Amino acid sequence: DLIMPGMDGNEVLNRIKANADWRAIPVIVISGRQDMEGIITCIEAGADDYLFKPFNPVLLQARIKAGLERKRWHDLEDQYRQQLERNEAFIRSTFGRYVSDEIVANLLEQPEGLSLGGDLREVTILMSDIRKFSTICENLAPENVMKLLNTYLGTMSDIIMAHQGTVDEFIGDGILAIFGAPISRADDTERAVQCALEMQAAVATINRSYVEAGLPEVTMGIGVNTGTVVAGNIGSEKRSKYGIVGHHVNLTARIEERTAGGEILVSQSTLEKLPPGFTTGRREKVKVKGINENVDIIQVIAAPPLAGAVSDV
Fold this sequence. Notes:
The protein is an alpha+beta fold. It is 43% helix and 24% strand.
């Protein structure tokens, strides 16, 4: 009722609607006032209905019933929303440990992305591998092997994701990363090579931590290649993963196998997509297993200097 002692109906209505826990409660205003301005004020403040005195009890009961039904549907929608938020949080926390944030976001925004299948994509593929890792493992206790490996993979994964790459797979100490899927960008190739350079630079920091922990130092080789692959969900309805398949995946693996510790080798197709200024080293034309034609591979040593950087000379 608008006319009440101590606190009038308008104040009660405003307090109810200002409280996040109460604002969905349906409110019916009853008053002898029939001025249009007062009715509009109540409706704008959140009242569900406005009845004039003397009111019809049957009509009031019907309005109350309708208001409660709307409240029931609101509560159901709120429960569904909370459940969806919990599910989304679970997906992000669980799958975010294994795939990039971009893939998780893609699955959440486009659930049809969970279906099997794929499409042709031009991507830049990065593969890295610790040199003589099997030999290293033979001389370490299992817990130290895992400590060494997890430190290495954790650091490298952070660098890859910082360069907007997708960590597609860990194969023992090997890493397969994709730049250009599921999200394509104009500078995918440049970011992939910049990422490779930063990964090699990070090995020195990792080795310092290994020495402090009494673990052996490691070296890593990285191969980078650019080409068209099939990208999508691979597997079965019960178990699948986002990945890439095709000739260029195999070619990247073969390029990576040719690297020495601390070296980055890229294909000619990757080099052609890089902007000017990258420092390169040795070049060679090699015959790689499973590929008929000879392959041009080039060592990348450094990235172009940052714009505005001051020379030490």
